[in-house]
Amino acid sequence: MTLRLKLTEAGFEELNSELELKRKKLRELRKYDMNESEYEEAKSLYDEINKLRHQIKSAELIELSNKDETVITVGSKIRVCMEYSDEDCEEETFILTGGQGKINENKVSVNSPIGECILGKKAGFVGKYSVNEKIIKIKVLKVE
What we know:
Layout: E1 6-7, H1 9-30, H2 36-58, E2 60-61, E3 77-84, E4 90-97, E5 107-109, H3 113-118, E6 126-131, E7 134-143
Parallel strand pairs: 1-2, 4-5
Antiparallel strand pairs: 3-4, 3-7, 6-7
Helix pairs in contact: 1-2
């Protein structure tokens, strides 16, 4: 089963830019006789290009407009409480993005297990999602 990425317009642009950079790099490699490491790099680039093309082709465009600001959508800032097994609840705040998540920037992708679990929900929602066969309980505390 193929997973359809959910992307905003900016997410589409980001993937298309990445695709164009990889295509350009591949074209540069093809201009000359390649040694073995360059050949392996070209094979890897070709695979990455095909993966990106497939992601772009099968992606679902999502709108940023959110008339009900209490509902979690792409661009929402969310404070949650996450409970890992029997540990105490850890509060975290992040922004839900339509592209790639960037943990160091507190951005979580709508395509991640967390994003899929809370998308369309409101403050007070309690749910569970799994990562690497571990079940994590999440409670949405605040949506901005």
